[in-house]
Amino acid sequence: MDHGFRFIWKSLIDTRRLLWIMVLTFAAVLLVQFFELPRDSVLSSLLSAGKVAFFGKRNFPDKGLSSNFGTVGNITDTNTIQEITNSAKNLNLTKEGFEENEGKYDRSKVDCFLNKNASMDKEFTSVNTGCSLRDSVGKCRDFEHTISSRNVTEKNDTSPGNIQTQYVSSTPGQNESSGSASECLLAFSSPNPVSPTKLDSVTPVISVEPNSSPVLKMPPEDNISMVNNTSSMTPSPSHGRSEMPKLASVTISKMNELLLQSHSLPSSTPPQWISTGDKELLHAKSKIENASSIDYDSGLYEPLYRNVFMFKRSYDLMDKMLRIYIYKEGEKPIFHESILEGIYASEGWFLKLLESSKQFVTEDPKEAHLFYIPFSSRLLELTLYVRHSHSRKNLIAYIQNYVEMLIQKYPFWNRTNGEDHFLAACHDWAPAETRGRMLSCLRALCNADINTGFVIGKDVSLPTVNVRSAKNPLKDIGGEPAIKRPVLAFFAGYMHGRARPTLLKYWGKDPDMRIFDRLPHVKGNKNYIEHMKSSKYCICARGFAVHSPRVVESIFFECVPVIISDNFVPPFFEVLNWESFAIFVLEKDIPNLKSILLSIPDEKYLEMLNGVKQVQKHFLWHAEPVKYDLFHMTLHSVWYNRVFRLNFA
Description:
By secondary structure, the protein is an alpha/beta fold. Among the domains are: 255-291 and 306-470 and 625-639, no CATH class; 482-619, Glycogen Phosphorylase B (Rossmann fold). Helices cover 32% and strands 12% of the residues. It contains 21 helices and 18 strands. Helix 18 links the parallel strand 16 and strand 17. Helix 9 (276-289) runs antiparallel to helix 10 (308-321). The longest helix is centred in the N-terminal third of the chain and has 35 residues, at 2-36. Keywords: Glycosyltransferase, Golgi apparatus, Membrane, Signal-anchor, Transferase, Transmembrane, Transmembrane helix. Residues 320-598 form the Exostosin GT47 domain. It is a single-pass type II membrane protein.
């Protein structure tokens, strides 16, 4: 009897211990997920529904956005809209609500990047000195993604339009340009080519169930997993899924063909109704196509352009006719705010100059030819990226929901499916942030990579310009004459990606070339600049991303650019004949680089050098815009692509 009692008692004790172990294990799992996963995903990964609460307070510091979210559409992969009548209060989009949460918005870490006082630190002090993310009072904090190297893979396991994204972040450093904070490589992993309509399926789906708040079911490709191996650039295994290999290298000749096809066979959606602005654009298109020598401008160097007469006629028509409506919605810092220094400065300069333009901006949307979405991809990252989360899904969803709000509030987007809307974004993440519905926009992107969905003839390649001084963006511009350029070719920078280590391997010890890992820091970056000014050719080798400020720096310092970046669409490709002033070398041909350069006759080199000097005016930012400068050229490329994509069929 006693033995049986002891056995039962012992069993009860063992059961209690087992229950405690289970409770502690569950608590440990919650604790680990809280620190390791994006906070929105802590419970969703444990619950069968798998839903992520999107309209939490943490993600939206924007009062202006919340006030316009009275109704939100239920966006499905078939673009069916179901009205939702939940109020902004239920959506928790207020700034006050945002700041009550742990991931709260800290304005101080953004303010240090804005040019509001003369004592601000530079985001990137120079190409050679690297990143100095700091503030004199210690308010600015480094972000983990700009400090540590890592690989991140975005996966989509279910939808037919799968996109697989890999980006690798690393410490910005000396001579680093392209994507020093993070750089993207996208490869389609669908057995079939992905069309813009397929990509609409990645738009977040907001579902409403009885007696519940709206929740956002994020697309599977937004679930980003951490990969600690930084030595490999290959995507993670797909666990049995079929993958489409990365697109083959697209040569500059093939890009020329794609541009001609785009303009000869418009693929845009016919508008629901033809506006006065459409008729004006159609009239402009006819005039541009019939341009002749009467449009000649002695201030334009003819070899630089695909057709100098068409460019001149188009530019003059834009200057006379173009009217742009800028959406007022969205609060600072993500909207209507600019960073004017560093390698992402182009988007800030364009936004600032356009919003202050009295010539091109109209307050009447009915007379507008184009509609501008005034956001900064850099400030979107600085404001909303959750440290240690390794996830961009809240950034992507934030800008997508902003666009959904515009669609609900105004009729303009739906008239053309957004094809008369445009944006300018320079951060490496911008292609991912502007996917979904925004793929139909005219996107001016620094990361102009065909592999990430950049569409030649629609999207615009925005120059990546490393602005060292907002007060004097033209500092140090100019170079030595050809006779004082004894170095055949120059490159210095971090060994990011595959191209640069190959470049160093083959040519790092060549006596005729100056190919370095990094240069010692010198005040004012003078050693780097002097090398550019004393070299015949400046190597613009891609890092992890295709774009690099070296392309524009070469033009600044009058050094013929040698672009080694497969699938990179060079800036203002619509109108500029890049082969007249730049050399394009495929990454696989790096072992033959020296023989390629030596095979160029001196006469050809001098012609290209003159072209570099002549094209320089198109890549300059001015506090007050000047004819043919970078502001006007960006605006012109957007205008030009819209004109030639008109389709009234």
